[in-house]
């Protein structure tokens, strides 16, 4: 199964990707996670990526596309993959079309007014799991792996506003791009996490 998860920042791509990857036993490929790992390890890619991510802007296409091409070439991606956060503009989508045949594009839709609260209240674990302070009841450790939860550097209000604006200008046109290709599946992301998951699984059948 070759799937893309599309959706604005905070729509729940990472949350659903983690669950879907487990269910279908396919790798979860998140460009955001790859960049954050590079930033942590202070690699040359990480140093470039950080300067864009901190501002809420897209990392240049030549860097991003190359990373994804290499990742999708790895043996574990041959049977399928779940792309989270890529493509993010029409150019990236065209480049992806040249190297792989995506089957379905799941667009998780959430009212824009709710996204800021979701993201600024997010706490993440190094294992990839996300939480929201409203449901943590003061817990500071990951329920899955026990890791210490922290807040992403780009989850502050100013950067989130820029990310939302970049999404509208550059990423939202992909909805039409994949609708025309007959691959788009629209999901109401404004429900409980388990309900959103169920809807995605049903629509993938
Ligand atoms: P990336 O890491 O992809 O961030 P993003 O797109 O801004 O999306 P988020 O990770 O913020 O949101 P999400 O949809 O995964 O939401 P989540 O599930 O965590 O990218 C970061 C940066 O990297 C970009 O700004 C860019 O600079 C760069 N980058 C990445 N890819 C790139 C590319 N292809 N090209 C160029 N640059 C690139 O959920 C959010 C919160 O909501 C959590 O607290 C969660 O618990 C909660 N939540 C989830 N689902 C629900 C629900 N159903 N109900 C209530 N709360 C929920
Ligand atoms: Mg994410
Ligand atoms: Zn964890």
Give a verbal description of the structure.
By secondary structure, the protein is α/β, with parallel strands linked by helices. The chain has one domain (2-110, 158-204): Rossmann fold, CATH 3.40.50. 50% of the residues lie in helices and 14% in strands. The protein has ten helices and seven strands. It has helices at 13-24, 31-40, 44-53, 61-73, 90-99, 112-120, 133-136, 157-171, 173-180, 193-204, and strands spanning 2-6, 28-30, 81-84, 104-109, 122-124, 130-132, 184-188. The strands form two sheets. The protein has a five-stranded parallel sheet with strand order 2-3-1-4-7, with helices on both faces. The model has no long low-confidence stretch (mean pLDDT 96).
Short description:
With 205 residues, the protein is an alpha/beta fold. The protein has a single domain, classed as P-loop containing nucleotide triphosphate hydrolases (Rossmann fold). Helix content is 50%, strand content 14%.
The sequence of SSEs as H and E is EHEHHHEHEHEEHHHEH
Any idea what the CATH superfamily is called?
P-loop containing nucleotide triphosphate hydrolases
Q: Within the CATH hierarchy, at the fold level, what is the topology?
A: Rossmann fold
Oligomer: single chain
State Rg.
16 Å
Main beta sheet, described? 5 strands, parallel
Distinct helical segment count? 10
Q: How far do the termini sit from each other?
A: 11 Å
Q: Give the integer mean of the pLDDT values.
A: 96
Number of domains: 1
Query: What is the annotated CATH architecture?
Result: 3-Layer(aba) Sandwich
The beta-strand count equals 7
Tell me roughly what share of residues is in helical segments: 40-55%
Strand order of the largest sheet: 2-3-1-4-7
């Amino acid at each position: 199964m070759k799937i893309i998860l599309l959706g604005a920042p905070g729509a729940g791509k990472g949350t659903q990707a983690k669950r879907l990857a487990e269910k279908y036993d396919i790798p979860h490929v998140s460009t955001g996670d790859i960049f954050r790992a590079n930033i942590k390890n202070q690699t040359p890619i990480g140093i470039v990526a950080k300067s864009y991510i901190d501002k809420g802007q897209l990392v240049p296409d030549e860097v991003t596309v190359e990373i994804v091409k290499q990742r999708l070439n790895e043996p574990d991606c041959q049977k399928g993959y779940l792309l989270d956060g890529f493509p993010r503009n029409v150019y990236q989508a065209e480049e992806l079309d040249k190297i792989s045949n995506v089957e379905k594009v799941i667009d998780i839709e959430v009212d824009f007014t709710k996204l800021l609260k979701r993201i600024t209240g997010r706490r993440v674990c190094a294992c990839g799991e996300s939480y929201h302070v409203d449901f943590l009841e003061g817990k500071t450790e990951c329920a899955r792996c026990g890791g210490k939860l922290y807040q992403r550097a780009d989850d502050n209000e100013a950067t989130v506003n820029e990310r939302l604006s970049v999404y509208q200008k550059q990423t939202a046109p992909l909805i039409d791009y994949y609708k025309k290709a007959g691959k788009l599946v629209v999901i109401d992301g404004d429900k409980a996490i388990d309900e959103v998951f169920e809807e995605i699984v049903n629509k993938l059948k």
